[in-house]
Write a structure and sequence with these properties.
CATH superfamily of the domain at 45-110 in chain B: AhpD-like
Structural class of chain B: mainly alpha
Number of helices of chain A: 15
Radius of gyration of chain A: 19 Å
Number of domains of chain A: 1
CATH topology of the domain at 45-110 in chain B: AhpD-like
Shape of chain B: extended
Distance between the termini of chain B: 62 Å
Structural class of chain A: alpha/beta
Strand content of chain B: under 5%
CATH topology of chain A: TIM Barrel
Helix content of chain B: 55-70%
Oligomer: heterodimer
CATH class of chain A: Alpha Beta
Number of helices of chain B: 5
């Protein structure tokens, strides 16, 4: 499997969240996100509670996908330290937040991944593992699929397309073949099979600078083609929009497509999608414990609104559950067309 | 504004300006256009592929850009899109060849 150096490793100017925000702010957009929201009667955008605690446990990954908003890769070293892990689990224990969403990087590479999952499961919480699939093929990580099944973890796995050429173009040469092997193993454990209670959802991002297809129509195609070609079954397909952040922003810049892509997102603003954006019900925790409105704001170093707790150590459910969301031009990525969230289309 | 050459890519986004001369006709065109491309007996994806093929036949670069994007956004892939334009090309080529009958008929009239 081919991997590339991350932007951070390349010392690329867009490795910095602040530089990315500056670039996005310089774009001549038809209207700002705030104005678009205001037109839909949604400004200021206020959180409706905390249904999902999404913890980004580290930026290390065995892949270097072209669209990655985290700039994750094998050369990243950031990992959530034990005291932050403890603080996250303490928040979970002391609140009724129903879902723990574990992401990265490849979250399974975190040394405490097993303990995090076991303890959250013991608290009776729904646990989602955002899995890149190929991590389960690494020699020291073959324990992952049976462990996830035993803990009844919901697997949300990335697969941009049901063919290798498109998948490998986005995620690296050889990724499709290994992903198919991983999906077959998950199926053999019961994942994606009706009645098993083991949920296997797939996530697709467009392989390029265009919006994702209709989620229901795509799910129909994916189910037919993955079953026909590879005998693979799964529960739901989530269509996600590529965010103009980090490596995808760099890709847009390289292709001279940044302005056209942002214009496409702005033109596609859908008030129905804006009302259901995930940041209203999610709280994002960075590897170092810093709180953000979402994983995208986290990668852009866009902090919570002034007056909000800065760290998971200072968690305050009342204030955080009704916080105003910090916004930027990248937010158009979650509101274009049918919308986009960690759970797919929202409208 | 660049008026030094024909077919200027940014003009696609300015398409609505064509409505300025006859706003009522433009509104009618837009309503009809929207209805044509809505999901119906054919899926929106199939309609986008037809539009892509026709765009090549009418040789409209704006339409080709628009329906390449639309086809991708409706979940079509490069192979399907390339097959669609081959259909357009085959009909175009076949249409030239079938006019050979006109040639043959005239040959018959002129010949011995």
């Amino acid at each position: 499997m081919r991997v590339l150096p991350t932007l951070q490793k390349q010392r690329h100017p867009l490795a910095s969240g602040t530089a990315q925000r500056r670039r996005l702010a310089d774009l001549p957009l038809a209207r700002s996100f705030e104005v678009a929201l205001d037109g839909a009667g949604l400004f200021p955008l206020i959180a409706t509670g905390i249904e999902v605690l999404q913890i980004n446990v580290g930026r290390k990954c065995n892949q270097t996908c072209r669209h990655c908003h985290v700039d994750a890769g094998p050369d990243r070293t950031e990992m959530m330290p034990p005291d932050v892990v403890e603080a996250c689990l303490r928040v979970l224990a002391e609140t009724a937040i129903p879902t723990l969403d574990v992401t990265g990087g490849a979250p399974e590479l975190h040394p405490d991944f097993r303990a995090i999952v076991e303890r959250a499961t013991a608290l009776g919480r729904r646990v989602i593992d955002r899995c890149n699939l190929t991590v389960t093929r690494l020699p020291n990580y073959r324990w992952i699929p049976p462990f996830l099944a035993e803990q009844r973890v919901e697997v949300t796995a990335s697969l941009p397309y049901f063919q290798s050429r498109q998948t490998d173009a986005q995620r690296g040469e050889g990724v499709f073949e290994e992903s198919v092997e991983a999906l077959r193993e998950l199926n053999a454990l019961g994942y994606g099979r009706p009645g098993s209670g083991l949920v296997l959802n797939l996530v697709t991002n467009p392989v390029g600078a265009f919006l994702p297809p209709d989620q229901r129509a795509a799910e129909r195609d994916w189910k037919r083609e993955l079953a026909r070609r590879h005998g693979i079954v799964f529960d739901r397909l989530f269509t996600l929009t590529n965010m103009p952040i980090s490596r995808f922003l760099e890709h847009l810049e390289e292709k001279g497509q940044t302005e056209a892509y942002l214009a496409r997102l702005v033109h596609g603003f859908n008030p129905a999608a804006a009302g259901g954006v995930m940041c209203r019900s999610t709280l994002s925790v960075a590897w170092d414990g810093t709180l953000y409105d979402c994983d995208f704001n986290q990668m852009l170093d866009l902090p919570l609104a002034p007056g909000q707790p800065h760290s998971i150590r200072d968690f305050d459910p009342a204030r955080l559950g009704a916080r105003p969301i910090a916004l930027g031009p990248h937010c158009f990525g979650c509101t274009a067309g049918a919308g986009s969230s960690c759970g797919g289309a929202v409208a | 504004m660049d008026h030094t050459h024909y077919y200027h890519a940014p003009d696609l986004a300015r398409f609505p300006e064509v409505g300025k001369g006859a706003p009522e006709l433009w509104e009618k065109f837009l309503a009809w256009y929207g209805a044509v491309f809505a999901e119906g007996a054919l899926t929106a994806r199939e309609k986008a592929l037809i539009a892509l093929a026709v765009s090549h036949t009418v040789q409209c670069p704006y339409c080709i850009d628009a329906y390449t994007t639309a086809s991708l956004e409706h979940g079509s892939n490069e192979e399907q899109m390339t097959e669609a334009i081959h259909v357009a090309a085959a009909i175009r080529g076949g249409a030239s060849l079938v006019h050979g009958m006109q040639m043959r008929n005239h040959l018959e009239r002129l010949g011995m």
